[in-house]
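Chapter review. Work through the record for Galactose oxidase before attempting the end-of-chapter questions.
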Amino acid sequence: MMKSLLLLAALASGTALAQTDAPVARTNWAVARAGEQVYTFFGLGPGKTYADIQRDVYVLDLRDGSWRKAGDIPVAQGRLASAALTVGGQVYLIGGYTVSAQGDEVSTPEVMRFLPDSARFETETIMPIAVDDSVALAWRDRWIVLVSGWHDKANVTDVQIYDTQTRRWLSATPFPGQPVFGHAGGLVGDTMVICDGVTADKGADGKNVFAISNACWQGTLDTQQPTQISWRPLPAHPGKPLYRAGAVGDDGRIVFAGGSGRPYNYNGIGYDKLPAEPSASVFSYDPARGLWQTHAPLPQAGMDFRGLVPFGGGSYGLFGGMRDGQRVSAGVIRFSTSP
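Structure tokens for Galactose oxidase:
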């Protein structure tokens, strides 16, 4: 009887059959949900070399759990650290970076719009400052907000806002903390919360020295003055700081899940040459009450995420990513924050 009730509840939320692993193992997937479809873009295959960076699109239908390949992204090279989100019913694919055979990494400036009916892409706009590993947020079903991130050789504090109605970019109040990449965040109403990520200070030899950050910031947006953001620091979240966790604003709170406590290159090996391992932590922040809350851990630890997909009713999914031993996975980690 209990199993039947759980199945009926899942059917009501449209996710009962979202139990099938993806047809390919991928980490660093840019993911977005639009209606009853989850779209996955780019990502890195199990070989974890520059040659394993992909440029295809897969789609999960949450109604029946079926996966299908929807085509290839029309760019010369695959990309990592891109972001995907849905605004006004449109799916946008944002930025990322390419990796050459020699190891050169270049931030890419395109924002592409994906047309699901035809599986085509259109170049929507070009970012004023190309960023990857940025936090990308959908605001009021109109604006795309990009917070901090990496630009070619360094982090930036820029907050770039794109108005999908006027198709214009705005430069907003900069991120007040130390600039980071691989941070995570979400937005509820007009309130966003940005946490963690990796700083990059210059060492005595002029090379970047990477360190994980435990800083969290709350930013309040204003629809009447979109360029004006009121920032304030928040207490650090429960547990250790994280790199490339999944996060989303949902049901009045910002939920964070997974990630790693060690900054690493795209192959899962830390900048200190030690292997990074995944976290199973789940926590959330309620802006209305100003409270952090710790939730039950993930059923399986995971890291290297570029999004967290809400399924409804306090249920979520992390797509692909790496598991213990930096293993690239085809799995979808499903979890609930409900008691």
